[in-house]
Design a protein that fits this description.
single chain, 484 residues, Uridine Diphospho-n-acetylenolpyruvylglucosamine Reductase, domain 2, Uridine Diphospho-n-acetylenolpyruvylglucosamine Reductase, domain 3, five-stranded antiparallel beta sheet, 15 helices, flavoprotein, FAD, FAD-bd_PCMH-like_sf
Length: 484
């Protein structure tokens, strides 16, 4: 049985099974018509919104469309978390090319909510708009390696991105769950196991093709729509428009990536967390590690990660984690693609409740372990940042948390019978650990002051970008960036 990333972290010392890599089809063209260099701004509409629902019959002549009751509709609306199975989009547009997205946006704009669905991993379920139009990008999933760059369709999943890049000897730092979509990951920043060495996924973005609220297909890059390009690098999925493809610069794939896991004995959590917070910021950027605290009595503790280099070098770095007495250790040296498969796992859907915080400075270990005491089925996962992530100023891209030690995910198993209790328990832990901030790719509908938590001082500029490109909130949702 394949193990999900979070399951893998619970079983430190076991060998994670690799996810199967399959090729995708229905590629967007390598280059598509776009706006001229510079900024061609969509006007703010003073015309009252159109009345009545979209003309689905007319749209169906242009785009493959599913309506409630159609064969395939129930399956198409499903996303990763079964908690959102009860939501009912008014229609699902199965888009295979940018022109399909343009037609769908133009038909529904200012009539009903519009949301893009890439991998379907939105923690808030925002890619399944109740009574709205879901723009399914699964048919735009090509991965086209072009020398040192790669053009990736917005519907591509990470398992396919890694397979194609690994086969070409290239590397793009990204996440670890195999069915996460490249679009949402990039737009929220893109934290992953190679981030300290190579940076965030959004740091490698060269340009993006995007359909904005006026139905135009634009190119966002440093030289074309530069404010929009800035916002797309960490400003969160669902905002500003529907991206149809991304062009990234890549790095040569490392020949060796050594992976490891350490499981510590009961009662070690406070000491290990204290040491981890000192150890990782001083480590070379080739080393990435997390620390995972598992609820229970006592609280469990594991450290897992990887080193871009050979296992001998990794052994040297692990020796600096001063107290490993009694820890169970596993280690292996892999190639780039093998390491990405090691950290991936099951493609099965998972029912859960989660939130996030940011570790901006060393935390009191006792606060975290106390909050988790007795809470079986809940983990606090702290993924290390620093290194290349911190080399970029917080205002240079929309991703704000450049100087943090790590991102913190509070994750609890949940099913329909205990979802309410799990939600309350996550909220209690979030309060108990006493940390601020948040990572928009772990979006939480209950997060207070979420705009500041996700975007910090970048929030003001993001609101201005929304005012320019989506003044009528065509892509508005509960935690969407509104014009300011």
């Amino acid at each position: 049985m394949k193990l999900g990333r979070r399951t893998f972290l619970k079983l430190a010392g076991a060998t994670a099974a690799g996810a199967a890599a399959t090729a995708c089809s229905a590629a967007p063209p390598a280059s598509v018509p776009s706006s001229a260099p510079g900024t061609s701004l969509p006007p703010s509409s003073s015309v009252p919104p159109p009345s009545g629902p979209p003309d689905w019959a007319a749209l169906r002549k242009k785009v493959s469309l599913l309506l409630p009751g159609d064969s395939g509709y129930d399956n198409a609306k499903r996303v990763f978390n079964p908690a959102f199975d009860g939501r009912e989009p008014a229609a699902i547009a199965l888009c295979a090319k940018p022109e399909d997205v343009q037609a769908a946006v133009s038909a529904a704009a200012r009539r009903i909510p519009i949301a893009a669905r890439g991998g379907g991993h939105s923690y808030g379920g925002y890619s399944v708009p109740d009574g709205g139009l879901m723009i399914d990008l699964g048919g735009m999933s090509s991965v086209d390696v072009q020398g040192e760059q790669v053009v990736i369709g917005a519907g591509a999943k990470l398992k396919d991105v890694y397979a194609k890049l690994g086969g070409a000897g290239r590397c793009l730092p990204a996440g670890s769950c195999p069915t996460v979509g490249i679009a949402g990951l990039t737009l929220g920043g893109g934290i992953g196991v190679l981030a300290r060495k190579y940076g965030l996924t959004c740091d490698h973005l060269v340009s993006a093709q995007i359909v904005t609220a006026d139905g135009k297909l634009r190119t966002a890059s440093a030289d074309s729509e530069p404010d929009l390009f800035w916002a797309l690098r960490g400003g969160g999925g669902g905002n500003f428009g529907v991206v149809t493809s991304f062009t990234f610069r890549t790095d040569p794939a490392p020949s060796a990536v050594s992976v490891f896991s350490l499981r510590f004995p009961a009662g070690s959590a406070n000491d290990v967390l204290a040491q981890w917070q000192r150890w990782l910021p001083e480590a070379p950027p080739e080393l990435w590690a997390n620390v995972v605290l598992s609820g229970g009595s006592p609280v469990g503790c594991r450290v897992s990660g990887c080193y871009v280099g050979d296992s001998a070098s990794l052994t040297t770095e692990l020796s600096r984690l001063t107290d490993k007495s009694g820890a169970t250790q596993t280690m292996k040296q892999l190639d780039y693609l093998g390491a990405m498969k090691y950290f991936s796992g099951s493609e099965n859907r998972q029912s859960f409740v989660a939130s996030s915080r940011i570790l901006g400075e060393p935390a009191d270990p006792a606060k975290l372990t106390s909050a988790l005491s007795g809470r079986r089925g809940m983990d606090v996962l702290i993924d290390g940042l620093g290194g290349a992530v911190a080399e970029i100023a917080p205002g240079d891209t929309a991703f704000w948390h450049r100087k943090a030690i790590g991102s913190v995910q509070i994750y609890s198993q949940a099913d329909p019978r205990n979802r309410s209790a799990a939600t309350d328990s996550v909220a209690e832990v979030v309060t108990g650990i006493g940390l601020g901030g948040g990572y928009v790719n772990y979006i939480d509908p209950a997060l207070p002051d979420w705009m500041t938590a996700y975007y910090g001082d970048n929030a003001t500029r993001l609101k201005q970008v929304a005012k320019t490109y989506d003044p009528d909130k065509v892509f508005g949702f509960a935690q969407g960036i509104t014009p300011g």
